[in-house]
Amino acid sequence: MISTTAKTTSALRARPFLGAASVVALFVALWMALLWSPPDAAMGNVVRILYVHVANAWLAYLAFVVVFIASVAYLWTKRLVFDAIAVASAEIGVLFTGLTLVLGSIWARPTWGVWWSWEPRLITTAVMFAMYVGYLLLRNLSDDLDRRASRAAILGIVLVVDVPIVHLSVTWMNALHQLPSVLRPDLQPTLDPSMLASLIVMTIAFTFLYAYLMTARVGIEQRRQARVLEARA
Amino acid sequence: MTWRRIRIIAAREALAERGQPDGLVSAVTFTATLILVESLAVGPLAATQPAVAAALFWIAMAFAAIIVTSRSFERELEDDALSALLALPGGRDAVYGGKVLALGALLAIVTVVGGGLSLVLLSLDIALPGHLLVVAIAGLVSLPPVMVLFVTIALRLRSRGALVPILVLPVLVPQLVAATNGSAAAASGDAAGAIGWAGLLVAFALVYSVFGLTIVPAALE
After folding, report:
1. A104-123 burial: b if 16+ Cβ within 10 Å, else e
2. Per-residue pLDDT tens for B126-135?
3. A154: Cα separation from own chain's centroid
4. Could you tell me which residues come within 8 angstroms of residue B147 by beta carbon, excluding any fewer than 6 positions away?
5. pLDDT digits (tens, 9 = 90+) for A36-54
6. pLDDT for the residue numbered A77
7. What DSSP letter does each residue of A89-112 carry, written as one string?
8. From A160, which residue of chain B is nearest by alpha-carbon distance?
9. Which positions 146-165 of B are in contact with A (Cβ < 8 Å)?
10. Quick one: average pLDDT of A71-93?
11. B206 touching A (Cβ < 8 Å)
């Protein structure tokens, strides 16, 4: 049985707090990234782009893992709320993957001397971006609510394979992109403590932003689903 | 037994293709044309490099697989046969398995024609022909599970002709890289490299077969 009656009241109540938390955390994170943390010995002030770039990449990973979990949950339960969560997270993931590529490119120009390099991390990220654009395209080309949800759920499960490939590509293949500085196998971050703190606060701020955007977008999708079900009835 | 049903559906697919071989003919013609056009576009010097020749061949194979798989499902929809197949006990798993098996057989023919054409036209010297055969078989095995999975997802959608390549080509990147590197390794005499890449291709085939058999039944309506 298909149901859209999810318990979204608590999410709706949390939205203003999540919005406020995002704004405050982003202000603190930007202050730390732009003013408090020192310039890098080699890169100078260009390093400050990385605080936003890494947080963007984290959000893209998070969003696509949420798509995967919501897709499994939809196929398991057939509750449309999970489809709403999946599409909301996929859209946010695509947005932040695109921003990751753009910011990485802006950082690469002064650091590597090129806007783009054919190296594994960049290619796998671009491929991940294309895959999830395809996921959104699939959803837009399907009119039937239930069939669209099933097809999208299957795709959401298959596509998550690329997330670990993107993250581990730099360790599997020698390349221009630097190795992970925080999420390392030995759990020993290689960053200066003030840089690490700035990065962690920025990541937390982006996670709040993700939660805020999710509550807003899931609400919109649930209203759309309700309209379709009403029209069908 | 599911395996028996899979074989029946694969045999049915082969019979349908024998009676009306438009999918196979289109794929073979397309592969040959694409290899010729790509080789002309990159120039004779570049096209005879093992890595370039292998890349051109495997890209052509990926598109050929899209054509054959799409045609196979189009035929089911045109004849309104899919609903009847799905209504059979265990039909959903068997449709996926049978299509994968049949597609593998059809692609073997495309590989022989396309591969032969590449070898002859580009005058390629192959240092390890046996290893190249292993890589070709592994590459051949790695394509159908992915193709059938994605064509099934896009079944009955409008613009599916454009959607399937958009969905499947990014997913096929690791297989294309592995098949290209494996073929180039076999051509240049790197036995360990060729076997390593072939192993990766087989692993991808297994992963996507498990994915397909587990979740494709949910997509088939």
Report:
1. bbebbeebeeeeebebbbbb
2. 889 899 999 9
3. 19
4. B65, B66, B68, B69, B103, B168
5. 888 777 777 888 888 899 9
6. 92
7. HHHHHHHHHHHHHHHHHHHHHHHH
8. B171
9. 149, 153-154, 156-160, 163
10. 94
11. no
Lowest mean pLDDT, pick from A95-104, B25-34, B151-160, B190-199:
B151-160
Cβ–Cβ below 8 Å for B170 and A130? yes
Write down the pLDDT at residue B154. 84
CA distance to partner chain B, nearest, from residue A15 (Å): 34
For A7-23, the pLDDT digits (tens) are: 556 667 788 888 999 99
Alpha carbon dihedral B208, B211, B212, B213, in 10-degree steps, equals 120
Three-class secondary structure of residue A120 per DSSP: helix
C-alpha angle B159-B81-B61 in degrees, rounded to nearest 5? 50
- The H or E element containing residue B204 is helix B191-219
How many residues does the structure list for chain A?
233
State yes or no: pLDDT of A136 exceeds 90.
yes
Instruction: Name residue A36's amino acid.
Output: W
Distance between CA A84 and CA A180 in Å, rounded? 32
Record the pTM: 0.83
Structural domains for chain A: 9-232 (1.20.120)
B163–A137 C-beta distance less than 8 A = yes
Q: With CB atoms and an 8 Å threshold, state whether A157 touches B160.
A: no
Q: Give how far A10 is from chain B: nearest CA, Å.
A: 32
Identify residue B214 by its one-letter amino acid code. Answer: T
Round to the nearest angstrom and report the end-to-end CA distance of chain A: 14
Q: pLDDT for A138-149, tens place per residue?
A: 998 877 888 889
Q: What is the secondary structure of A39-102 as a DSSP string? A: PBTTTBGGGHHHHHHHHHHHHHHHHHHHHHHHHHHHHHH-BHHHHHHHHHHHHHHHHHHHHHHH
Determine the residue of chain B that is closest to A150 in CA distance: B219
B170 close to A (CB below 8 A):
yes
The distance of Cα B5 from the centroid of its chain, to the nearest Å, equals 22
Smallest Cα–Cα separation from B66: which of B160, B158, B130, B156? B160
What interhelical angle do B22-42 and B91-121 show, nearest 10? 40
pLDDT digits (tens, 9 = 90+) for B95-104: 888 889 999 9
Chain B CB within 8 Å of residue A142 CB: yes
Indicate if ipTM > 0.85: no
> Is residue A138 within 8 angstroms of chain B, CB to CB?
yes
Residues of B in contact with A161 (CB under 8 A): 207
